[in-house]
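The protein record quoted for completeness.
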Amino acid sequence: MPFSFITDRIIEEKNKLIEEIESNGSYSFPPSDEFKKDDLFASKKGMMFAILTARDESGRETVIRAYSGEKDIKGYANPCYSRNEFRKVTEKWSAIIKNAPQSEIKFLTKEALTEIYSLYSFTDAWKNEFSLSDVFSSFAPSGSGDCAGIKCLNAAFRKNLRITGFGEFYYGKDTETRKSGAFYPPCRERCEKIIKRMTGLSFIYVDQDIAVINKQSGLLSVPGIGEEKLDSASERIKKVLYTDLKSPFVHRLDMGTSGILVFALNKDAHRNLSRQFENRTIKKEYTALLEGKIEKKSGRISLPHRLDTERRPYQVVDYVNGKESITDYEILSWESRNSMPVTRVRFLPHTGRTHQIRVHSAYALGHPILGERLYADEKKGERLFLHASKITFIHPRSGKEITIISDPDF
């Protein structure tokens, strides 16, 4: 789901904003008759607002507020464009379209939107700037870049802040889909791609103790050796979210493997989750596409292996010195890819050895994972079709069992 990080502090700041609006009778700060509170409770005229809390390098907190839409309302985060430039361009095109023949309006409107969208400039967590055209391959959906959450994140990253809480809520007349004061995740159509570009991550779940992402294939879980291998999911988490941990990761996925990756955001959570992984109480499932057709629909694989110290990180099967590794598997479907037969398989590992599923697929089943580079003939330009699709663990604070699911994109 799109990025959402609701904390007690966010709820407190949301309630504070609503109280101020109701006390002032206006959602502008200072109050303005142009932006009356009562207008939001007229027919279908409610608005989305966002609250973001963040800290700088010294730990000092900042609270950022924003609203959705193009209106110029005082007391909130700046829009993601120059107000003066935006006003000039919109006034120019309004005059052109107003005086244009009906047959040209559609074309001119597209031209106007193209120029307007070029005014938008977003900042990611590394202070790099990008535009709407860098995010959307085709025409950006209407309203892209004007959502409350995007404005909050943009303001935070421009100030080099790290996030401690983030939420968007609706305020105004109740509708069939939205209730006043309730939190809603950022919209998928307009916001998800922009937020992913801003953070460099695809978040599934975040709270004050843990962050769960859907890691993309090709991204390291943790930094490697050398400056060129510093970029990783762990380093991106540290740049986007506020944590005092030097190493927030509690487990890893191979660089080529996509899917669920869990991080701790404080020492207690890190200690608790690490213990669960060590004690093998955490349940994990993977989905993979294997070359060829596997006839046996399910089974258990027990195949010991170890690191080949002369060909790191390659693993070799070794019945004498190898470590026990056990994986259950189940055939999900027989399919075809690029006119070749493939088998979709669910894997349930009971141990957590390096490259365990990759080794078991190639040597125990005799069918390497599609895109395999170490344990099969290298196929350039194709990703590893292995995805961490499900994980179940005990939440380190609440003590409740939590299950995260992520469907593969293959």
